[in-house]
Amino acid sequence: MNDEHQENLELRRMLEEAMPMERAEAGAGPLDSLDPETAALRRAWQRFRELLEAGGPTEIERAAGNILPIVEKVEAQKEAGSSEKARRAPRRFRWSAVALAASLLVAVGLAVTLRIVENLKDRAAVQPKNPSAVARGDKTAVPNQIARNPNDTTARPTNKNADVAANNDATDSWNDSVDDDITAVARATALVKQDWYAQSGSIGAVETGVSDLSRELDQGPL
Amino acid sequence: MQSMAPEAADSERVAGWLREHGGAVRGFLYGVVGRLEALDDMVQEVFVRAWQGRERYEERGHARAYLLQIADRVACDRFRRKKPESTLGDSVWEIGERGAEANDPSRTAAHNEAAGRLDEALEELTPLQRRALLLRYYGQLSFNEIAETLGCPLNTALSHCHRGLQMLRQHFGGDEL
Fold first, then answer.
1. Is A139 helix (H, G, I), strand (E, B) or coil?
2. SS (H, E, C) A14-52
3. ipTM of the predicted structure?
4. Do residue A12 and residue B114 have CB atoms under 8 angstroms apart?
5. Rg of chain B over CA atoms, in angstroms?
6. Longest C-alpha distance within chain A, in Å?
7. Model's pTM, two decimal places?
C-alpha cells in the first residue's frame, strides 16, 4: 500500500516535470537537470505542444474570425431561451383558466344529475302503481288502499316482519271494527309483495282477512 | 459608476469566456473528436451549456477548466475521434481562405503540414490518453482536476498521462527525438 502510494507520488513528480503548466514553466528545471526518462518525456510533450500550436484549429480560427458567428449563435440561443420563458407564462395561465372552467362545468353537471336522480326517486316512492296490477298478479304492486290509508303509506315491512306477520295472522282476532279489518287486509297485502316465500304464508292471511271482512259485512251495517 | 444588471453581467461574462477561451475549447474538441466540420456546433453547445449553468459556476479564475470540462462532456455525448480526418487539409484551406492571413500560401501550407502531423500523433493515443493530455495542454488542469474530469482515480489519470507521453515519445522518436 505504501509502495503504491510512493510510486504514485514519484509518477506525479515526474509528470509535473515532464508536462509543466504554462504558469509553472518558468520554475521547471532545465532539461539537462532531469533524469533521462523524464527529459525524454519532456521533449515529447514539447513537440506535441508545438504541433498543437501550429496545426490545431485555433490559429486558423483566430485568423478567419470564426468566433463571431459563434457569439451570434450563443446570443440567439440566449434570446430564444428568454422569449420562450416569456411565452410560457401566459400560456400556463391560459391552461389553468381552461382547467378551472372545465372542473366547474363537471361539478355543475354532477350536481344537476344528482338532483334529477333524487327527484325521480322521490316521485317513484310517492306515486303508487296501478292497483289493478295486483289483481292481475303483479306481486310487487302497492294497492290503492294502502296509498290512501294514512297509516300504511310508507310502511315497508322487512322479510322477517313479513314472516312474523304471516304467522301471527292465523291467530289474530278479527272481531273489531271494519276499519281494523281493512287495515289488516291492507297490511297483509303489503306483505305479499315482499317475496315468494313470504307470499306463500301471507296469501292465507289475506284470505282469512277477506273472509272475516265479508262475515262482518254480513252480520251488520257498517 | 452604474452597476450592470445581473443578466447583462452574465452575458458579458459568457461573451468574455468565448473571446478568451473559445480557441482553446475549439482546439480541445478538435483534438478529441477530430472532425472539423462538427466543431462549430460543438463549440456552440459548450457555450450554451456554460450559459445555462452560469448560476452554478463560481468565479475562482478557473473559467477555462470549467469550459473544458463541459467540452469534454459534449465530446463524450456526441462522438469520438474515429479515424484520421482525411479531408482535414481541404477543410483547413476552406476556412483559411476566409481570413486575410490565409492569402499567404506558404503559411497555409505549413499549417496544413503541421495539422497532418498532429493528426498522426493524436491517432497514436487512446481516447482517454488524448483527453488527459489535451486537458493538460488546453486547460492547464492539475492532475487532480484531470482525474475529476475523466471520472477516474488520480493514479489512473496519472497512468493515462504517462502512457500517452510514452506513446508520443515513441512516435516522435523516429524522426525528431
1. coil
2. HHHHHCCCHHHHCCCCCHHHCCHHHHHHHHHHHHHHHHH
3. 0.78
4. no
5. 18
6. 149
7. 0.55
